[in-house]
Amino acid sequence: MMALRHDNHSWRKIKSALASALSMLAAVLVIAPLGLVFFYLLQKGAGSVNWHFFTQLPKPVGEAGGGMANAIAGTGELLGIASLIGIPIGVLGGVYLAEYGSARSNWWLRFVADILNGVPSITWGVVVYGMVVLTFKSFSAYAGGLALGFMMIPLIMRTTEEVLLLVPNGYREASLALGISRWKTIVHIVMKTASKGIITGILLALARIAGETAPLLFTAFGNRFWNRNLAEPIAALPLQIFSYAISPYEDWHRQAWAGALVLVVGIFVINVLVRFLTRDRTVRIL
Amino acid sequence: MAVNTMSSSTPTSQSGAMNPTPTSPATAAELVTANAFAVKDLSIWYGEKQAIKNISIDIPVMAITAIIGPSGCGKSTFIRCLNRMHELVPRTRVEGKILFHGEDLYAAGSDPAMVRRRVGMVFQKSNPFPTMSIEENVLVGLRLNGVRNRQVLNERLEKSLRRAALWDEVKNDLKKPGMSISGGQQQRLCIARALAVEPEVLLMDEPCSALDPIATAKIEELIRELRDQYTIVIVTHNMQQASRVSDRTAFFYVGELIEFGDTAQLFNRPRERQTEDYITGRFG
Ligand SMILES: Nc1ncnc2c1ncn2[C@@H]1O[C@H](COP(=O)(O)OP(=O)(O)OP(=O)(O)O)[C@@H](O)[C@H]1O
Ligand SMILES: [Mg+2]
To answer: Ligand nearest B71 Cα, by number?
Structure first.
């Protein structure tokens, strides 16, 4: 009896050790690609990330140096335009799903949002090309921002819905029982309680679209100079990386690595910000 | 069963006015006979399921009415009807009439938000708003209803916290989060929050069931003190509590009102067999 139990025990120990070794291996395999990307980008790109990279325009072929200042600013502007479209529609859509919609309409809305989330990003480029670029006969910052904004809507909508649904119903009831209107209850009580979660969703959506290239190819198009008019083509970091990376010039390749490094660091910073926002206890429920 | 005095039930000045002073000059005789609510043939359904079956009851003004009965008998459903909170549950249906000081609560033009400002509610689980300080919690009802005057707000803050017997404990910590105080204090904070909008009626759904005996005793004492200025309807599972705090007690059983009367009489000499079985612990 004693011996049997002992045996059993050690076999269990082995199994448990095996399981934890396997899951450790899986964890390493998850982290490895990230480490690889960072290592590679640092090795190839860090040398070209300098003050000029952030302040100067690209130099013509053959001339050394120059930077991607216009592309960095362009990505900022495109994200700004995308936010103007994606944040209000996405957040309000999420509010509708969580607070107003009937079970039936919500089922359809979620279904549509999930399909939209799965649409390949180049599709958005094509759609906006047809809708805006052809209509106004020009590539433009507006078109690029619109394509990115369309991508943000379903992302933000679903995260907003999720965090609003996490707000306990007791708070809604307590507010309504004070004679506070439905709309004020949603804005001042429910959304305020979930605000960090909503912001987190917005930041993640921004991080997700910041590196998108495909939807910009035939909307924002790219620009070797500063964009002075949002109705005209605009540079963007991913576009610039793309065109430099496929160029035959050594110097441009180095610039492309540097651009990729800057982009990844930017997205990394957004994610750190998200971690920071979701750090304390009250928010972790949200 | 309750004597129906509906026709002569509302001689007070309160009918119609949004926020009348709670202690309007009414004579003692009026206070005894006046009803805050006159409920007539009330039935409530959740989808197909009937939770309240044809209840008629008059709830007296400036008195404490307790509602007792076994779990699932419709106590919460009933009091949530008195300020139209049950409407938040989809697929509910109400039949019958509830008159509040003679006005039909469910009349076509009646605004639930207005009803709820006059008929406040305290819930079983204390629920201070987690993003707000103690002060903000108390004042949120006023602020979101458009009161901006700092002086009014300060006065109301102190008055409400004093009435909720919480002022002395929190007066130096008004900026601390509402969630940072003990469970019993949080429940009193919720009472202060409800009182700050100056309702005429306070509905309490098992306000002490999540509290320890000491915190419960404090809230019971507070409820008795509020009796002079508010009409209170309290749901409780605790029969000692009902007999300690209330003037009148209603016994509900599977959606029906079995007996309603003077608390002492109901507990000492129940008229109905079912009431007796319940209060002597034979079922429920
Ligand atoms: N949201 C709901 N949807 C469907 N049925 C409900 C809902 N809320 C309550 N009911 C049903 O209505 C009946 C009365 O419920 P209610 O909550 O009013 O009882 P209660 O007397 O307050 O019980 P307790 O003492 O447990 O709080 C119960 O049978 C319950 O199952
Ligand atoms: Mg209940």
So the answer is: 1
